[in-house]
Every structure is written in C-alpha cells, then in structure tokens.
Design a protein that fits this description.
The structure is a single chain. By secondary structure, this protein is α+β, with helices and mostly antiparallel strands. Helices cover 18% and strands 37% of the residues. The protein contains 14 helices and 37 strands. It has an 18-stranded antiparallel β-sheet that branches. Helix 4 runs parallel beside helix 5. The longest helix has 19 residues. The termini are far apart.
C-alpha cells in the first residue's frame, strides 16, 4: 500500500482540527497604538503590532520543568482576566522623582496551575510566566523567542570571552563589549548576546529587548541561528560544583553544572521578558520600563541612602603630584583624597583594589600601609564617606560578619566586583547582599556584573551597576576601539535598563588620531566638553571622578562644573537623539536645569528646543568645544549668556565633542 496519500490526508485532516483548537486573545496598549495577540493551541505564541506595522511575528513561549513537563504545550485556558492600571509612583534616587505607570494587562490561567501575564504599555510589551505549585520547582529551560517579520538590523553586544559555540566558556564574562551591527540572519550563532539588545525594523521602529524583576532565576542571553530572523534565549544552568580562582582568587569558577537552570519555589512569578518600542530614537533615552516592572522597595526608610560623587583612585593609578609624600596605597594618599573631597563637596572616597591583602580573599586582612579605622574617622570629621572595594568571593564567603564589622567602623558601602556570571547563584547573591547591606545601612555598587533588572527599585541601596563598556577600557584598549561611537550608541541600549557606573571625568583628552592606551596615565577619546556632558547624559546616582585630584586642581573651571552636577534628578527630558550619531538630554534638579549633548566623530550643530522651561529670564552657563578642539581635545570655551527668547539653544560640537550647560534664574 502506498502510504503517501494516506499520510497526506491525515496531515490535511489535522490542520482544521489544530486550527479549531486554537484560541486567540488580544490586548491593546492604553493609547491604542500597540496590540498583542496571544494564540493558544499546541503551543503559545505572542505577536506584537503597532497599528498596521508588525513588530514581532508570532513567537513561541514555553517553560520546561524537571521531568519533561512543558508549560505552554497543548495548554488549556481555564480563566482569563483583563485589568488596567493608571498611576504615578514615587521614584527616589532616579532620573526623575515620579514615574507614570499606565498599562493594560491580560492574565491567562491554564490547567496545570500555571499562568501567563501579558502587559502592554504605550512604549512596549512585557510578559511573564507564573506557577502555583507546592514545594520546590526546578526549571530545565525556558523558551524565549523573538521572531521578526523581516531580516532587520540588530545592534548587539556579544560576550567577549570564551570560544565560539562553547557557551559554557562564554557564561563566564564581565558583560562589557562594544556593539556589533548586522542583519539578524548574519549574527554569529556561536556567540552569546548579552542584554539589552536593539533591533531596528524596516519601518523605523526600534525595539530594545531586555528583562526585569530577575530573582531566583538566571539571566537571559540571546543568540541568532544564522538562518531565520529570530533571536532565542539561552540560560546558564545552575552551578553544581564551584572552585575558587580567577582574578586574584576572588572569583568562584563553575566546574560542573546541574541539568536545570533554576531551582526555585513552586508558587511564584518569573522574570519579565520585555520588548521596549520606540518610534523615535530619543524616546529610548528616557524610558522607565525596567523600573516600572521591578517590585516596590523592600526598604522602609530610605532617608539614609545618600547619592553623590566619589573621588576615585584606581583609574588614575593613585597619581598625585606636587605633594610631599609618595603616592600609592597608603594613609597619606587617602587623606589627600579625603581632604580634596571635603573641600569640594564630594560625598565619598573609594578605596579600590589594594587595601586588603592580595590573593587571600579575606577582607579582614588589611595591608600594613593602611590604617582603616584612622581613615574612616578622618573622613567622618570632614563629612566624607568611605566606600570599600571588595572581590566577590571575599565578600560572599563571610558576608554578615564583613558587613556588620565595617558598618560598625563607619564605612558607608561596598563596591563588589568580579562576579562575572549571571546564573541563579549570582542572582541570589545580589539580592542577599542587598538585604544584608540594607540591614546595616550600607550602599552597594555592583561591578563585574550583568545589566540592571530593577534591583535599584527593590533595594534602593543598590545605587549603581557596571555592566557597561566604561571609561576604564581606555586604560588598555587599542587605538582601534571606538569609544566615542559607543558613547552615542550605548544610551539607546544599555542605559535603557538602568543606572551605570561608566566612571567618566578624564582631564587628559585625545582626538581620534592622538588617542593611545596608557594604563598609568590614561586619557579619554573625544573632547573635554564631552567628559563634562557625560555627567548629565549618563545615569549614575553614585558617580565617580575618575581622574587624579592633582589633574582636577589644574582645571578649576571644568572640575567646578563637574562637582556641581547632581547625580539624581527631579525630571528628565530627551531633547534629541539618533542611534550612533548624537544625543541631547536635559535634566532638572530643583530650580536648575542641566543640558548635556554628545556627538560621534562628526562635527555637528544642533538646535535644542527648551520651550518646556517656564517663564523668562533664564541664564545659560555653558561649556562648548573650542575652535581648535578638533586638534587639541582639551580646548573649550566657557560662557554665560541669556537664553534666547524663543528658548532655542544652538549647540556646536567638534568631532568626538560635547556640550554641557547649567540653566538657572
């Protein structure tokens, strides 16, 4: 018997049955522009459209539990619920003091005690799984897929470490790299992409993919398949066996993993997967999606959390000059930093790597050149707080003792470094560290870590994050690394996720042809005004002064401006922006506004509309690239003038340039 006709008939017969079994649920954004369609049948798929423009083609979502149960396969809806929220939430220690939260939500409950929550904001989609099971739940994998309607352009950061197609070696990384731009089908399937990532659709819409409310679960990577316009999720499995090692033996290296990605409680909501939608590039410069999706603060009284600036030692290699002592990791050097901070209203001084005995991973062992109690007391008398750098394993191995001991001493917080992973154990560590430090009123600045996912809202003492290709890279990066273009690309992608410890403030500035890496006397790419503007453009509640006090004292005008710029804001206005080309942002603190603008390596003139400023009589104190900034990057002009009556501000920037201004009455 010829089986082909029979098989064909059976196949055709299955199609109507499958289609008949499918159910479709739809949801629109509050303004009606975005619409998502959830199709439930043999699998669950999400589609996203903006008006008549498809943004996401139907994309599968599922979660596989230990034992092979697949949430989302042949799912049966038992209950649906729609709801809406329109409120304003307080947002201290942020780029604005209030955040508008307005969305429509669809909740699908399925047979088998699991659910799917889908939200549509005017600026994007978010969805998450929920489960209502008893005991412990182990997740073997989650299907996270973003299928696009065409082979559009992606702008992504690849993991810079590890071997191609060897994802285990890539799971150990610092989440720092410049961006690669390519059609989705041309992305390297052998390299993981860390988040956030951007996709530009043919119609001009830009989508930023990231996640929020990451707790008790590993972080999300993406990868292309080299064939179709789709990005799929990848997760680091749960560590089974770890070994001390890595940088100065301060890290834990995973030597063996479990067969699952998460071991968690059975009744919970899982992380949000989110697609942020922008019609204009500049909308991405002032997006609150991740903050809105994070849980509310778990700290009752946050009045003790003090944002501010930090006099920093490591980037400038402790290079003081014109002093009568030998600069280095010693009390005389740090007293000089403290005096400098105190005289100039700088809130903190950090003791970066070197104050604790090397390769011991023991924060109780302080090098003999440092008297920590004396330094903390000296700083307290001068209204300066001390922050200590700590390697991950040294901090984690005895966290309660370490935090309570240094809190009693008067230390204000820790910069914890070299986690270099985002598996569940590291995610759990971040929450545990935030909790323990909050109990002792200590700040946290996480370095060597993945992007923010809203932890700064849930634990506001987590005041900053790295996960950015910051200015430290200029200490060693070759001339081929283009930091200037990165600076006008990253705010549309990485900064969408939240704050970042970029560590700007260089007083040695270089044109494109003059830059070179000098580890002990580093320089920046681009102009002096660019460094000033970055204190306004980049979000950083705990903001480093990367250069030496000696260099700042030689530049009183520029340093005075840097010292005056706030680090948290009442309001933010994105004035202008085009990915990879230019950025202009205005931020308000009290009665004063600050404006920062950056360009790529193209000289540029832009006209900024400040008509949102109420009333007349505004003065503009500005720092502009000098006439010869294209030759000598340190060249700048400072001027004070009245804002024109039409409130249009014309800004000229040199190649790699910037503009910074304080606007007041």
């Amino acid at each position: 018997m010829n089986l082909k006709p029979l098989l064909l008939m059976l196949g055709l017969a299955c199609i109507p049955a499958t289609l008949a079994a499918q159910k479709t649920y739809s949801l629109s954004s509050p303004d009606g522009n975005l619409r998502t369609t959830v199709t439930v049948g043999d699998e669950i798929r999400l589609r996203l459209d903006a008006g008549d423009t498809p943004l996401l083609a139907p994309s599968p979502v599922a979660m596989t539990l230990e034992g092979g149960e697949v949430l989302g396969q042949n799912a049966r809806v038992v209950r649906t619920k729609k709801s809406s929220v329109d409120q304003t939430i307080a947002s201290p220690l942020y780029k604005k003091n209030r955040v508008v939260e307005r969305y429509n939500q669809l909740t699908l409950s399925f047979r088998g005690d699991f659910g799917l929550i889908v939200r549509l904001y005017d600026d994007g989609l978010a969805y998450r799984f929920t489960t209502d099971r008893k005991g412990t739940l182990r997740v073997e994998d989650e299907c996270v897929a973003f299928t696009f309607p065409s082979d559009c352009r992606a702008v992504v950061p690849y993991v810079a470490r590890g071997k191609e197609f060897d994802f285990e070696s890539q799971f150990f990384n610092s989440f720092e790299n410049t961006y690669t731009t390519a059609p989705i089908t041309e992305l390297n399937p052998g390299r993981l992409i860390f988040l956030p990532a951007l996709v530009e659709l043919d119609g001009g819409y830009k989508l930023v993919i990231t996640e929020a409310d990451l707790e008790g679960y590993p972080g999300l990577y993406l990868r292309g398949n080299g064939e179709t316009p789709e990005l799929r999720g990848v997760f680091a499995p749960y560590p089974k066996r770890e070994e001390q090692g890595g940088h100065n033996r301060l890290q834990m290296l995973v030597r063996e993993r479990e067969g699952y990605i998460a071991s968690t409680v059975g009744s919970r909501a899982f992380p949000w997967r989110t697609v942020i939608v922008a019609r204009e590039d500049r909308e991405l410069l002032d997006n609150d999606m991740v903050y809105r999706l994070a849980p509310e603060s778990r700290i009752g009284d946050t009045s003790w959390i003090r944002p501010g600036k930090v006099a920093w030692d490591w980037w400038n290699d402790w290079n003081l000059y014109g002093v009568d002592f030998e600069a280095g990791i010693n009390n005389d050097t740090y007293k000089y930093y403290i005096d400098f901070a105190s005289r100039n209203g700088i809130e903190y001084v950090i003791l970066d790597e070197g104050w604790a005995v090397n390769k011991k991973a023991d924060l109780m062992q302080v090098v003999p050149e440092i008297d920590l109690r004396e330094l903390v007391s000296y700083a307290r008398e001068r209204n300066v707080g001390i922050i200590l750098w700590a390697g991950y394993h040294a901090f984690d191995r005895d966290m309660e003792r370490v935090v309570s001991y240094f809190a009693e001493m008067g230390v204000k917080g820790f910069k914890v470094d070299f986690m270099d992973r985002d598996d569940q154990k590291i995610v759990d560590f971040l929450h545990r560290a935030a909790h323990v430090c909050a109990e002792h009123r200590m700040l946290l600045d996480f370095h060597g870590i993945f992007k923010p996912t809203g932890l700064n809202r849930t634990w506001p003492n987590v005041i900053n994050y790295e996960g950015v290709f910051g200015l430290e890279q200029m200490k060693w990066s070759p001339e081929t690394v283009d930091q200037v273009t990165y600076d006008v690309t990253m705010p549309f992608i990485r900064m969408v996720a939240g704050t970042m410890d970029y560590t700007q403030g260089a007083m040695r500035n270089a044109t494109r042809r003059n830059y070179r890496p000098v580890n002990t006397e580093p320089m920046s790419q681009g102009t002096r005004c660019r460094q000033l503007a970055e204190y306004i453009v980049f979000e950083s509640p705990l903001n480093m002064l990367c250069d030496s006090p000696s260099n700042y004292l030689k530049e009183p005008e520029c340093f005075g401006f840097i010292a005056s710029v706030p680090t948290v804001w009442d309001r933010t206005e994105a004035l202008d922006g085009k990915l990879g080309e230019r950025i202009a942002i205005a931020r308000q603190s009290g009665d004063t506004w600050y404006v920062g603008a950056l360009t790529n390596w193209d000289a540029r003139e832009v006209v900024l509309d400040l008509s949102f400023l109420e009333g007349d009589g505004w003065k503009v104190e500005s720092f502009s690239d000098g006439r010869n900034a294209h030759r000598a990057a340190c060249d700048y002009v400072k001027r004070t003038e009245m804002l024109p009556a039409d409130k249009k501000l014309t800004v000229k920037m040199a190649p790699g340039g910037g503009f910074a201004a304080r606007i007041y009455r």
